[in-house]
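Propose amino acids for all 272 sites.
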């Protein structure tokens, strides 16, 4: 009888320990990671900014207005540029798109029509993913040229944005501010708080062929996002693909935009 009670107590203890091991630590920017789409965002401090209400799209030259959000494309990626530290192209935006509906409208009607406009949508998609993983993954599927590219990004972002039993709130690997690190004047020593309107600055890449044409399929272009405040190597390489016959570009590869950036000093105020 005593042996049975001991076995019963042992099983109860084991179940309790397993439960503790699977517990997710909470925090102001914590996001649960359940579900195949990356999880819900009920714990994210900026999840309330997600809004799928549709607004009229107005395009005037190089500027698009969606509700009270404004996006502007400037300059161009000069494939003959020899200075790789000064931006020749940049995109400004007053707000991160409020969800997939706005993201799709901005991509299709303005930003997706240039290689630097497309690259500038990378931090936007990351921030939407942090607020709502399912919508963010949907944005990445629109922005990127293949599901394998999206899967690689999502696999990393889950770890970068989610606190868990394996990465508690004091784990420096979790970097909720990562989407802001590629924005102008956001730096480790100012809490990764960029100037407004938000700006993504770009120039052509120095380390690869400037364009690679795959006969019958399309052309791959190489450029840098300039982000001197977040990494020692401040040129974040991005590959942008344009399929033959398409007037829109896609992100082909961008791993340096979601690699570990410098540890934050100060308070991150979030993005609008």
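Proposal:
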């Amino acid at each position: 009888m005593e042996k049975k009670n001991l076995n019963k107590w042992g099983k109860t203890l084991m179940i309790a320990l397993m439960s503790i091991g699977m517990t997710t630590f909470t925090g102001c920017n914590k996001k649960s990671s359940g579900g195949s789409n990356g999880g819900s965002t009920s714990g994210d401090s900026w999840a309330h900014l997600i809004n799928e209400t549709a607004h009229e799209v107005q395009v005037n030259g190089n500027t698009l207005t969606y509700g009270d959000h404004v996006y502007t494309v400037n300059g161009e990626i000069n494939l003959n540029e020899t200075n790789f530290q000064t931006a020749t192209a940049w995109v400004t935006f007053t707000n991160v798109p409020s969800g997939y509906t706005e993201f799709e409208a901005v991509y299709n009607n303005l930003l997706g029509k240039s290689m630097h406009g497309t690259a500038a949508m990378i931090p936007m998609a990351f921030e939407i993913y942090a607020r709502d993983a399912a919508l963010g993954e949907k944005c990445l599927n629109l922005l990127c040229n293949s599901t394998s590219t999206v899967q690689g990004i999502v696999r990393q972002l889950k770890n970068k944005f989610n606190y868990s039993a394996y990465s508690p709130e004091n784990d420096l690997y979790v970097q909720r501010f990562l989407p802001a690190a590629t924005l102008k004047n956001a730096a480790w020593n100012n809490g990764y708080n960029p100037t407004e309107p938000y700006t993504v600055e770009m120039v052509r890449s120095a380390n690869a062929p400037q364009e690679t044409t795959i006969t019958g399929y399309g052309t791959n272009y190489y450029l840098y996002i300039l982000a001197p405040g977040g990494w020692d190597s401040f040129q974040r390489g991005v590959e942008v693909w344009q399929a033959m016959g398409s007037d829109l570009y896609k992100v082909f590869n961008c791993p340096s935009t979601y690699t570990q950036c410098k540890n934050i000093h100060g308070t991150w105020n979030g993005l609008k």
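The chain is about 25% helix and 20% strand. The first helix runs from residue 2 to 21.
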